[in-house]
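Quick one: co-fold with NAP.
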Amino acid sequence: MSIIEFLQRSKSFNWKGAIRLDRPYIICHMGASLDGKTAGDYLKTERAAYFNDLYEELHKRFDSNAWMCGRVTMEEHFTFGHQLDLESLDGPVIPRTDYVANNHAESYAIAVDPSGKLGWTKNAIESWNEHRKEEQHIIEVLTEQVSDAYLAHLQKIGISYIFGGNEHINFTVVVQKLKKRFSIQTLMLEGGGFLNGSLLNEGLIDELSLILVPMADGGSNLVTLFETSSFLTKQPPVNFFLKDVERLEDSGLWLKYVTKHD
Ligand SMILES: NC(=O)c1ccc[n+]([C@@H]2O[C@H](COP(=O)([O-])OP(=O)(O)OC[C@H]3O[C@@H](n4cnc5c(N)ncnc54)[C@H](OP(=O)(O)O)[C@@H]3O)[C@@H](O)[C@H]2O)c1
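Sure, here it is.
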């Protein structure tokens, strides 16, 4: 029996991820209302709180030590709009080369922050619930447009960073670097919709883990699961195939889809 056949027969082995040599296996893990909204008033209700907790519990079920969010989500949930005072760090030009402060972390939090706006004051996000117990070392994904002072700040506090392009981010390059520099095998892509849409656009999503919250928000202009930023060219629709479905308490559903048939 060949090694590939052996791995395919092993039930507990994610062979699709394992044989992908150049990048991590990418799972988009999200919660959405019945009308596809990933943000909105419905998330502030008591009923949605149960599904928010479940989101964290289900995150833990995936064997992954890395998750990625867009700048807006990171600002809303982790840096809370904190602005850095970088005047004292104005200095020499810093080469636009990747900086690895720690590639032996137990877990990684990856922030897509093209121009360096996030006001991090520490190099890791501390545990905030029982499902994310370990400290998560921060990796910033930047473009070369970022200021030298921001790079100096990241180096000073020990945040790793990688470059995804000059003006725009090429996520194919980014995820390859995450595997090469940090040995990330499985990446949880955890919103928001504009970040998800960017990876969808490059054909980088292998799996969708969707918690369907049994509410309809009805709000217009709310971010959906996948959005296309104005500077991107929308690609043809992407096919998903149902892998598993689980009934949740209180009328919810956990849907798992893959983008390629086995
Ligand atoms: N329901 C859920 O499961 C869930 C999960 C996560 C988040 N959310 C919610 O989603 C909302 C935010 O979603 P969002 O889509 O507006 O924001 P987002 O995806 O969190 O962040 C968008 C930002 O990320 C950067 N970015 C994304 N794609 C890029 C690309 N291709 N190239 C360069 N930069 C890129 C840009 O930063 P710059 O603006 O700095 O250029 C962009 O404005 C929040 O309300 C959050 O709570 C919900």
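If it helps, The chain has a mean pLDDT of 92.
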